[in-house]
Every structure is written in structure tokens, then in C-alpha cells.
Amino acid sequence: MLFRSKDLNAVEEAMGYKVLIDEYKISQSELARRLGKSVATINETLRVLSLHPDIIETFRTSERVPRSVLLEISKQPAREQLALWEQAQRGELTVRKARELKTRDTERVYPYRVSIPVGIATVTVTFGKDRASNEEVVEALRHATALFESEHV
Known about the structure:
Mean pLDDT: 85
Order of helices and strands: HHHHHHHEEH
Distance between the termini: 49 Å
């Protein structure tokens, strides 16, 4: 049986797009052309796959949260997604509310990045705040090095 995207929920559709892109080694723009959709629509749908795994799993079995709300949650920072998902499940989050949250850029903390060229590579440390001291950078690098060594020895 041939299924159209209208028969699929947002997660199933995104997974289908990912399979097509991976199996046929095509770009999002090529997939969009073949499906008669915009690249923005393909990109937005694929973004659903970056949601927290708990959200994806719950959405697959839930019919209470509209697809449009799920797409808006996927545009939010990862650290806010679970809380927004809980609101959406209780019926307290609309597309309008989610978009309003996104436009409150003045309240957002922009990540602070430090990039350090080291020979043939560049090491980048990203903090979830707008500043970090030299000591915090050094500590983050030490921690990352220890984790890397423990996982790759």
C-alpha cells in the first residue's frame, strides 16, 4: 500500500525523509523537488528528529498534541523542549505561545564559544551562557579530555 505524508504523523514523516535522503544519497533540496515541497518544509520536518527522544516516543503514541505545536517545540533550545512538551500535552501550549517564546530573544542566553587552533585542528568549547572565565575554559577542556580518554582508550 502506498502511503502519502498526510497518513503519517510528523515523526514518521521525518523518519521517512531521512531514510530517502540516506538511501538515495540526495540533498534536502533534491528531496523537496522530487516531492513537490519546499526545502523549508523538508528542513522543518527533519528538525523533529532532533527533539529529545522522550518527546519523539511520546508523540508517536499521542494524538493530543498537534503537529504544528511539535514543529514549534523543535525550534526551541533543547534545554526548554521537555518543559514545553509537558505544557503541550496538558493543552497549555499553542503555536502562538510557542512562537512568542521564540521571539523573546532579549531573555535568551546566547552561547559563549572559545575556539583554539591546535595544529591541524581547532578545538571549540561552547558554554550555555554569554561569558566564561579563562579558568572555566581550562576546566571544561580538562573535563572533555578526561571524558574523551576514558571513552577512546
